[in-house]
TrEMBL record:
It comes from Thermoflexus hugenholtzii JAD2. Keywords: Hydrolase, Metal-binding, Zinc. Residues 17-195 form the Metallo-beta-lactamase domain. This is Glyoxylase, beta-lactamase superfamily II. InterPro entries: MBL_Glyoxalase_II, Metallo-B-lactamas, RibonucZ/Hydroxyglut_hydro. The keyword Hydrolase applies. The keyword Metal-binding applies.
């Protein structure tokens, strides 16, 4: 599969500038929406403009800024919602929105409980689920090996890592996820995080100050 088969649009939405990814197969127009955290109208307008058929809506994790548009996007597309089961309690708690007095519509329950190692097929794309806990207990990343892309939510950022001071976070678990699941990917793998710009595994291995003593 040529890398050009994977196409992507990035929408940076909401008060925390959360990246919502619309990833699709250019041949079949089947799509995956990852972390619809805010502004369902903008997300759905992009889906319509690109003439896509959404196969799955996936939450990398269930913090409020990644799930806020779940209900509207799932209803409009008819696509199943997918989440790791360890984050279901956080989803049911509206991602902690009430901790910050943020009004948030409740999410529908997940239709699919994602497990480490399983594969989501979207057209000719194959996204492997990597369980990467630490930011939250059920955090996952999605790796498309042939395109050399990993969408990793709030685990690894350009010159940063996910916070671990919220309920369910754990620093040692996060660092183990980075070491065992992300740093084992090829250096040229492009990393698309939940906030901020993309990077690569190699760039973070070489220059991320949080990883200096990890390996």
């Amino acid at each position: 599969m040529p890398a050009s088969t994977l196409q992507m649009r990035i929408l940076t939405l909401g008060p925390l500038a959360t990246n919502c990814y619309i990833v699709f197969c250019s041949e079949t127009r089947e799509a995956l929406i990852i972390d619809p955290g805010w502004d369902a109208r903008q997300i759905l307008a992009m889906v319509r403009a690109l003439d896509l058929r959404v196969r799955y809506v996936v939450n990398t994790h269930a913090h409020w800024d990644h799930i806020g548009a779940n209900a509207a996007v799932v209803e409009a597309t008819g696509a199943p919602l997918a989440l790791h089961p360890a984050d279901r309690p956080l989803l049911e708690a509206k991602g902690g929105a009430d901790w910050w007095s943020i009004p948030l519509p409740p999410s529908p329950p997940p239709d699919l409980e994602l497990q480490d190692g399983e594969v989501l097929e979207v057209g000719k794309l194959q996204f492997q689920v990597l369980w990467t806990p630490g930011h939250t207990p059920g955090h996952i990343s999605l790796y498309e090996a042939q395109a050399g892309v990993v969408l990793d939510g709030d685990v690894l950022f350009a010159r940063g890592i996910g916070r671990t001071d919220l309920p369910g976070g754990d620093y040692e678990t996060l660092m183990r996820s980075i070491r065992e699941k992300l740093l084992t990917l090829p250096d040229e793998t492009r990393v698309y995080p939940g906030h901020g710009p993309p990077t690569t595994i190699g760039q973070e291995r070489a220059a991320n100050p949080f990883l200096e003593f990890l390996e």
